[in-house]
Amino acid sequence: MGGGSSTDRRYMSGMLPEDYWEKVAWPENKEVLSILQLNKHQALKIFEAFVDIDSDNSGEMSVEEFHVYLGMTSTKFSERIFGILDADASGALNFSEFAVGVWNYCTYDVRLITKLAFDIFDIDQQGKLDLAECDALLRMVYDVPHLDNIEGPPSGKEIMELIDVNGDGEVTIDEFSDLMETHLYILQPALDLQRALRQRLLGVKFWDGLTELRRQLFAAEDSLASNSIESMKEILVIKQKERESRQHQEEEALSEEEQAHILEQKERARRKHAEKQYQKKRRVQKLNAQITEEEKAEKLALAEVRECRLMLEEPFTFDQLSERRQAREALYSAANKLKDASLAALNVRQANERKNSIEVDRSVDLFLPAF
To answer: Which residue intervals define the domain EF-hand in the entry (predicted)?
Structure first.
């Protein structure tokens, strides 16, 4: 953690700052900060700064603490910026307001800073200011009671003459933006405030990169919003919806993938079962092909004996004695056939076993050393 968060310092809920970050601050703000393209490490740097500023461990920073941290004197404009960051108008910033507000202001390009300053006084959101409102805008930015106090160069009077380009007594946002392209000094205090924030938090180069990323990702929200504050709200709301939509699509895709995986497993099991059945059938066919004629005769004789026995086991009447006698004679005959067939099959099996044994002995002899 940063310099203000020593190892023995206790922060909110009596936790160490690093524990509070891991258990509370990051989980609560992860979604929003991720939308703003801040990873956990970068967001931690902003949290460390917040803890350094929040010296009383209240979980909030006051406008005074804000200016002390930046090393700047409080002005009406900087106080107004603080008020804009203070989303709930509580008079203090919590970490979420600070992080989102810092990102918002630090990623402004000149066009958006111009729009921000313009929006502060364009109360009716008509996209134009009269000269009195322009006068008030400049006095607030430069923190002076009268334009005459802006000595310049250019002086306050000269700036006003530049602003009212066509002398119609009104300035549109487009006219004001065009003027800022070539006369940055008009809003120099606003640019100085941004630079101070950038330097204290993550560095100017880092924020330059995020400013470019903001142009790429959030240009629509920045251009269509009625003012710069609404732009920030639009970014968070729309991008959150986009993230939720992507998550929903990913969940659906995952569900479809799981279904496909289940179907694939079932198909694999079906093919495996079919292969087993096929191999079993092949083994049976192979075994049948290896059966000798004697063994086939033995099987037929055994089947005949079983059939004769079944006939004798059936109940009979006195009138069926003759048939019964014939069935018994058939059983005796079948038994004799089975005896002869079994003996013949046994002789064949023994002969084959002796033959196989001799072949095994011969194959073994090939590997035995000669003596």
So the answer is: 41-76, 157-186
Q: What is the CATH number of the domain that holds 49?
A: 1.10.238.10
Catalogue the long-range contacts made by 67-76 (C-beta closer than 8 Å, 24 or more residues apart): 69/200, 70/193, 70/196, 70/197, 70/200, 71/196, 72/193, 72/196, 75/140, 75/143, 75/189, 76/139, 76/140, 76/143
Measured between alpha carbons, how far is 371 from 72 in angstroms, rounded to an integer?
A: 107
Query: For residue 256, what are the β-bridge partners?
Result: none
- 41 and 168 co-located in one domain: yes
* Residue 124 counted as domain residue: yes
Res 362: pLDDT: 53
C-alpha to C-alpha distance for 72 and 178, rounded to whole angstroms: 29
Domain span holding position 60: 17-242
- In order of 269, 302, 362, the CA distances from 339 in angstroms are 46, 9, 35
Q: Residue 35 CB: number of other CB atoms within 10 A? A: 20
Burial zone of 275 (CB within 10 Å; 0-12 exposed, 13-18 middle, 19+ buried): exposed
For 39, list phi and psi in degrees, rounded to 5.
-85, 175
Cα dihedral 172, 173, 177, 183 in deg (nearest 10): 50
Mark whether 211 and 332 lie in a shared domain. Answer: no
Q: Are residues 184 and 45 in the same domain?
A: yes
pLDDT tens, 249-294?
776 676 777 777 788 888 888 888 888 888 877 776 666 566 778 8
| Backbone φ and ψ of 249, nearest 5° | -65, -40
CA distance 63 to 78: 9
> What is the tally of structural domains in the chain?
2
The three-class DSSP label of residue 164 is coil
Confidence (pTM):
0.58
DSSP 38-105: --HHHHHHHHHHHHHH-TT-SS-B-HHHHHHHHT----HHHHHHHHHH-TT-SSSB-HHHHHHHHHHH
Computed over every residue of the chain, the mean pLDDT equals: 79
